[in-house]
Amino acid sequence: MVTMSWQVEIDEHTCIGSGMCAALLPEVFVLDGAVAHPATPTVEADETVLDAADSCPAMAITVTDGGREIGPRP
């Protein structure tokens, strides 16, 4: 069985530390002081990760799959 994984990045210069991502997926996103960070740069493919990227008020989260940007969604 092949497990799909995605890359998650947070632009620390754009992040406003709202904590919405960490509230939605605390196992993936960690609020560290004024900004959030991914707990690990690679995560299992999960629609909720895209939901977190979509819900970021600063649009600071980028999700890529094999180098192709898939989140946030338009």
Which descriptors would you attach to this protein?
Ferredoxin, iron, iron-sulfur, 35% strand, single chain, transport, four-stranded antiparallel sheet, 6 strands, alpha+beta
Layout of helices and strands:
Blueprint (H helix, E strand, L loop, with lengths): L4 E6 L9 H5 L4 E4 L2 E4 L3 E3 L2 H9 L5 E5 L2 E4 L3
Antiparallel strand pairs: 1-4, 1-5, 2-3, 5-6
In words, what does this structure look like?
Keywords: 3Fe-4S, Electron transport, Iron, Iron-sulfur, Metal-binding, Transport. Its cofactor is [3Fe-4S] cluster. Ferredoxins are iron-sulfur proteins that transfer electrons in a wide variety of metabolic reactions. This is Ferredoxin. This protein has a four-stranded antiparallel β-sheet with strand order 4-1-5-6. A two-stranded antiparallel sheet has the order 2-3. It has 74 residues and is α+β, with helices and mostly antiparallel strands. β2 and β3 form a beta hairpin. The protein has two helices and six strands; from the N terminus they run βαβββαββ. It has helices spanning 20-24, 47-55, and strands spanning 5-10, 29-32, 35-38, 42-44, 61-65, 68-71. Helix content is 19%, strand content 35%. The longest helix is centred in the C-terminal third of the chain and has 9 residues, at 47-55. The protein starts with a strand and ends with a strand.
